[in-house]
Amino acid sequence: MASPPAAGAAAPAESTGSSTWEHTKRIAAWVFFAGVLALIWRQARNVDWWNVLASVRAIPLPMVLAAGVLAFCSHLLYSTYDLLGRRMTHHTLATLPVMGVTFISYAFNLNFGSLIGGVAFRYRLYSRLGLGPNTITRVLGFSMLTNWFGYFMVAGAAFCFAPMTLPPNWRIDSGGLRVLGAGLMLAGFAYLVLCAVAREHTWNIRGHELDTPPLPIALLQLLMSCANWSLIGGILWFLLQRQVEYPTVLSVLLVAAVAGVITHVPGGLGVLEAVFLALLSHRLPEARLLGAILAYRALYYLLPLAVALVFYAVAEMHARRLQKMLSAASG
Q1: Hey, where are the domains in the chain?
Q2: Cα(52)–Cα(292) distance, rounded to whole angstroms?
Q3: Dmax (CA) of the chain
Q4: 196 forms bridges with which residues in the sheet?
Q5: Given a cut of 80, is residue 33 above it in pLDDT?
Q6: Which residues contact 327 (CB under 8 A, 6 or more apart)?
Q7: What does the H/E/C string look like for 126-175?
Q8: Residue 4: its pLDDT value, please?
Q9: Which of 54, 56, 59, 225 is the most exposed place for a label (fewest CB within 10 A)?
């Protein structure tokens, strides 16, 4: 029979192991970040930026308009993600305010990172609308789950069934991509199975509640998120003037998305460019690639941010006016 001191002695060892793992993850993230910065610096020094600007101007107007329509559809679709969170948490906010909060948060998230956009703006705006911290956390978590669930399935299908042609000096080949894709799809299918068979749909993991929805909601998550990632890939495909196969453009975008998350660079600034140059510069001139990405940033990042700034200013003025009215009524 184990004595109490022996039972308590296991905790420091477990804590030490956890601390070592955390340090290892941080070191790996910084090494990856340094590698990306080195790649960005090496590429930026050799770029003729006047040619890049000329490439932006050379994109045909119909291609720009098509990309703009897809960008609008993507932001509109993403703005409905938190409606699924409303269904899961049973809060009673109306549809338009929920979509407004999601749109503003997503626009700031794209440009300034998830802590500012996805987290801080959601907490501020939703709390102004009367939601409690626990409900906001669950809505945010479910929205993130929806986004990355679709990513796993789209990336898995793209890597597994239509692996891109990698540069000749890369060590991984299409076979390695197929294995990675199969693993991502298996993880996605495991989530669907969990949603189908779980008796309890709220899980407590280290003090945090994780909601797994019933299977119909999970399938709706899958449809919405897969459609959104596909729309984003279509934006870049049109801006590249359809000179690279759509599955390849989508695959490169998916790789860049993960690289941006790992490096924690706000808006993936420089990371997106570095990944596209590394994976497609053997297919297209660098100036054309960078011109398409600059146009993509203008359409998908900066233009929605300008609209979100206006929406946020209106929301703040409305909240202050309401607060004054309530203060006057109580006085």
Answers
A1: 61-330
A2: 9
A3: 78
A4: none
A5: no
A6: none
A7: HHHCCCCHHHHHHHHHHHHHHHHHHHHHHHHHHHHHCCCCCCCCCCCCHH
A8: 40
A9: 54
Cβ neighbours, 10 Å, residue 74: 22
Q: How many residues does the chain have?
A: 331
Res 138 pLDDT > 70: yes
- How many CB atoms neighbour CB 16 within 10 A? 10
CA angle 87-191-136, nearest 5°? 35
Q: What is the DSSP string of 255-321?
A: HHHHHHHHHT-GGGTTHHHHHHHHHHTTTS-HHHHHHHHHHHHIIIIIHHHHHHHHHHHHHHHHHHH
Integer-rounded Cα Rg, in Å, for the chain is 22
181: its two tokens: 């894709």
Residues 283 and 281: their CA atoms lie apart, in Å, by 5
* Helix/strand/coil for 208: strand
In degrees and rounded to multiples of 5, residue 59 shows phi and psi of -65, 125
Query: Is the separation of the CB atoms in 137 and 88 below 8 Å?
Result: no
Can you give the pTM of this predicted structure? 0.80
Judge whether 230 and 250 are in contact, CB under 8 Å: yes
- Closest by Cα among 94, 90, 206, 208 to 145: 208
Q: Which of 237, 238, 195, 230 is nearest to 216 (CA)?
A: 195
Cβ atoms of 266 and 257 within 8 Å: the answer is: no
Q: What is the pLDDT of residues 226-254, one digit of tens each?
A: 999 999 999 999 999 999 999 999 999 99
Amino acid identity, position 60 = P
| Two structure tokens written together for 39 | 């790649």
Q: What's the pLDDT at 116? A: 80
Query: What integer is the mean pLDDT of 193-212?
Result: 72
pLDDT in tens, 65-103: 999 999 999 999 999 999 999 999 999 999 999 999 999
Please check the confidence at residue 281 and state whether its pLDDT lies above 90. Answer: no
Distance CA 280, CA 251 (A): 11
DSSP 242: T
What letter would DSSP give residue 214? -
**Number of neighbouring beta carbons within 10 Å of residue 245:** 14
